[in-house]
Design goal:
This protein is 23% helix and 29% strand. The protein is an alpha/beta fold. The longest helix is centred in the N-terminal third of the chain and has 20 residues, at 105-124.
Amino acid sequence: MTTDAPRRLRVLAAMSGGVDSAVAAARAAEAGHDVTGVHLALSENPKSFRTGARGCCTIEDSHDARRAADVIGIPFYVWDLAERFREDVVEDFFAEYEAGRTPNPCLRCNEKIKFAALLDKALALGFDAVCTGHYATVVEHPDGSRELHRASDMAKDQSYVLGVLDDKQLAHAMFPLGDTLTTKAEIREEAARRGLFVAKKPDSHDICFIADGDTQAFLAKRLGTAEGDIVDESGAKLGTHEGAYGFTIGQRKGLRIGTPAPDGKPRYVLDISPVDNTVTVGPAEALDVTALTAVRPRWCGAAPAGTGTYTAQLRAHGGETEVTAGLVDGELHVTFTEPVRGVAPGQAIVLYDGTRVVGSATIATTDRARAVA
């Protein structure tokens, strides 16, 4: 009995300059695919991006990616997508904060850059797939349809930021690390065995286009300062701020109220009103959300019919919670089995059926167990 050998694909490997994308590219090449590495130049002034451990878009990172490609033995290019990145990710980031919402730029980058702009260009050049170092799994069925699933190792799973991918994009997505049941230390050991000197390079974190990690200062430089009131649930003024955009729902630190709450317990940001530039704070229990409405749903396959029971993830490193969800006039209406906290408009809710990613939508409004005055 003979079996057909896996088809050799032309693969474009997105190489950030980090260890995960380097190992992913190496595995794709080792599997027999025709791999080309590409680093995305996303900054109009790369020197302004953070360096070393904190970023993924610096000149230093492009050099690291090139060295990794040389070791793997694959062609390598740098593609300038800075203008598209600025329009689709950075400008969206400013607009969302200005509107009192809390965006996820990494999710937007996956949707608009890596699996839209990059994928479109790759397909136009005759590539079959785009490979990245994300920890997620694509399952292909005999009929050719594909599903996105969580990574085999839940501790490293990154399917939340990939929930925006539709079935056409999944058909050209490759995640060689997704079925890896190993620790990050073992991935680094593999990189070292392959001779990839990025094996010891620390992971990037935070937002790549904010050079020093100070989000509030970054927003203030663009949006300016505008003094407003910090009030409690009754509307009583507790303090002032220099811009409502500098806060997010559920925030506890940095409120600078001064006056303690009557019960002595911490206060949290409950509401952000860009219209009157007011931030409302209150006790933790006032953050309890029982339901939400989300817009711009994107499905990893066919849109679900009717109302169903799923689990939902509300932040990149958050846990799962049980929900019922369904479409009403193009909007996703979600009800939580148990109240959840820290749900901020602008963030994504990703629905799961077991390990399968059903889809993602952007949170627009929430229903509180206890209404904010």
